[in-house]
Amino acid sequence: MSVNASPSDLAKPSAMPPGSREDLAPPRTLTACDLPAHVRVAAKLRLELAHADGATRITERREEGAFRFRFPKVHGGAPEAVLVNIAGGLAGGDSVTSDITLHEGARMALSSAAAERVYRSGGDSTRLEAHLRLEKGASALWLPQETILHDGARIERRFSIDLAPGANLLFGEMLYFGRRAAGEGFTFGSLRESWRLRMGGRLVLADETRLSGDFGESLLHPVALSNHVALATLLLAGEDAAEALPLIYDELPDERALEAGASDLGGLVLIRIAAEDAARLKTLTLKLASSLAPRLGLTMPRALI
Predict the structure, then answer these.
(1) Residue 196 belongs to what H/E stretch?
(2) Among candidate residues 274, 190, 180, the one with its CA nearest the CA of residue 232
(3) In DSSP terms, which residues pair with 11 in a beta bridge?
């Protein structure tokens, strides 16, 4: 569901979307300066897990900056990793890089403690990068809580996934443009997103999204996003991933305010969801993930329950 809009460094004036609060709307031009680099978030996370003595164990863990891993106690299942942002949010100039490797036979479920908020930028982008590698026989579930873009946010996200033969993955991300239920719209800003997934060294998925300029006039248009202000992507990867398609199709509803579809890319099932209501999108995404996780021998992270 990639949508390309004409780039624009400064947003054009447009009417506020229904339900937005005029008194909370930021100025339309990005004239403010972001904070200097030495006070910006520059988080780096590294995690490696290996299977030994019948259990998955942490073999390397590094945390720099404002992000932390937390590991709730589990009894007999795969470890759960929870991402925690102790800075309370992200803004222009902030960066977060995570690098996670699961060695042969290791298993893990990852989520986050809360939704990630990306606030208005003075010009710089917020940069998020995730690198995930799974060796033979490894299984992982990656499903953080939603990322919320506040008005004027500029974000660049890159996902790089490498799967060895025999690895299994359920990978999901949810993205909201504003908080419409709270009367906070997303009228301008930018999103650059890049996905790369390789299986056995072969590139299976390469996806690019570029959204910029006036969101209300250019993107909330019938030929673009229409009224859909919440998006979700789910990837199910594994040798038998296509066998899950009948289950997925049964779960996808036929609703006017929601569009969803699933495609078989050969060992990889790509699911895309777009909704006018963020809460409905999250409910459907979690329902799908809950149905698919047992195929990997994993359970949903408790942070999402």
Answers:
(1) strand 188-199
(2) 274
(3) none
Q: Tell me which amino acid residue 184 is.
A: E
List the helix and strand counts (H, then E) for the chain.
2, 17
Assess whether pLDDT exceeds 50 at residue 21: no
User: For the whole prediction, is pTM greater than 0.85?
Assistant: yes
Domain residue extents for the chain: 43-304
- Report whether 63 contacts 98 (CB < 8 A): no
Position 218 pLDDT exceeds 70: no
Q: Which of 9-23, 130-144, 145-159 has the lowest mean pLDDT?
A: 9-23
Strands 139-142 and 202-214: unpaired
Q: Give, in order, the Cα–Cα distances in Å from 293 to each of 137, 139, 267, 279, 289.
A: 15, 10, 16, 21, 6
Nearest partner of 138 among 82, 76, 79, judged by Cα: 79
Count of residues making up the chain: 305
Q: Is 110 helix (H, G, I), strand (E, B) or coil?
A: strand
Instruction: List all residues 6 or more positions away from 13 whose beta carbon is below 8 Å from its beta carbon.
Output: 28, 214
Three-state secondary structure call for residue 283: helix
SS3 of 8, please? Answer: coil
Position 40 scores a pLDDT of 87
pLDDT in tens, 147-182: 999 999 999 999 999 999 999 999 999 999 999 888
C-alpha span between 42 and 40 (Å, rounded): 6
- Residue 305, classed as helix, strand or coil, is coil
Query: Tell me, what's the pLDDT at 215?
Result: 75
Pairing of strands 139-142, 168-177: parallel
pLDDT for residue 49: 98
| Dihedral-angle region of residue 183 (phi above 0 means left; psi in -120 to 50 means alpha; beta otherwise) | left
In this predicted structure, the answer to whether residue 16 has a pLDDT above a threshold of 70 is: no
- In this structure, what token pair is assigned to residue 103? 């060695």
143: confidence class by pLDDT, cuts 50, 70, 90: very high
Tokens of 68: 């932390």
